[in-house]
Design a protein that fits this description.
Length: 231
């Protein structure tokens, strides 16, 4: 077993509660297209597989035509650009957890399905940008989570092996991406996960906050270093 040198963190539902902004944009899109607004908790179940999936699931039609989808997508992007980061909140324990990880010498990366044009401004506006050595977005690689491409790319950018990285997220997309890439996986229970219980996921640990995640990593590294010293 190998000590961790890096942590790869999801954004929406793990670092930030961005549902207020996403729901506002989705509902502004719906109203513009002649539909009624949805509750925030309903929109939250649409989050996780990228903006296009959110737009598609926010429409009343299960399989919208290419023309209808393009019109909806344009409206969502326009409204989301106006509110991105306006009401998003950093979850309790995130700042402290990131500081603890950084103090341990870990390299940190964001790995998100959110497009770059929304991710970078959101990190800046919420004060999180300075913590991260790399940012891998939904349009960075050919495939997004739950595929492993973004996790593998983040490890390459950070100069670590997958065995030296832990993926931290809130959903099945994070768990599957990290597991298939070969990292260990932690999840927080307060995120979105498309309405599912995180206890159903194939993960190495469920941590209440990012502070607990940092402590989990620290204990893991202490145990691995002690085992190496005894070998």
């Amino acid at each position: 077993m190998t000590p961790f040198r890096a942590a790869l963190l999801d954004l929406d539902g793990t670092l930030l509660d961005s549902i207020p902004d996403l729901a506002f944009a989705a509902n502004a899109m719906r109203v513009e297209l002649g539909m009624i607004a949805l509750r925030e908790d309903v929109v939250a179940t649409f989050v996780g597989k990228g903006v296009d999936n959110l737009v598609r699931r926010s429409l009343d039609a299960a399989d919208p035509s290419p023309e209808d989808f393009a019109r909806a997508r344009e409206a969502f992007y326009r409204h989301y650009h106006l509110v991105n980061g306006e009401r998003a909140q950093v979850y309790p324990g995130v700042m402290e957890g990131l500081k603890h990880m950084r103090d341990q010498g870990l390299k940190l990366a964001v790995v998100t399905n959110k497009p770059t044009e929304f991710t970078l401004p959101l990190l800046q506006r919420t004060g999180l940008a300075g913590f991260f050595d790399a940012v891998v977005c939904g349009d960075t690689c050919a495939r997004r989570k739950p595929d492993p491409d973004q996790v593998l790319h983040a490890c390459e950018l950070l100069g670590v092996t997958v065995a030296e990285a832990v993926t931290i997220g809130d959903s099945i997309n994070d768990a599957q991406a990290g597991r298939s890439a070969g990292t260990q996986v932690l999840v927080v229970p307060y995120g979105y996960n498309e309405g599912r219980d995180v206890r159903e996921l194939d993960v190495d640990g469920i941590v209440d906050t990012l502070v607990n995640a940092a402590q989990w990593v620290e204990l893991w590294n202490q145990n691995q270093n002690a085992a190496k010293a005894q070998a």
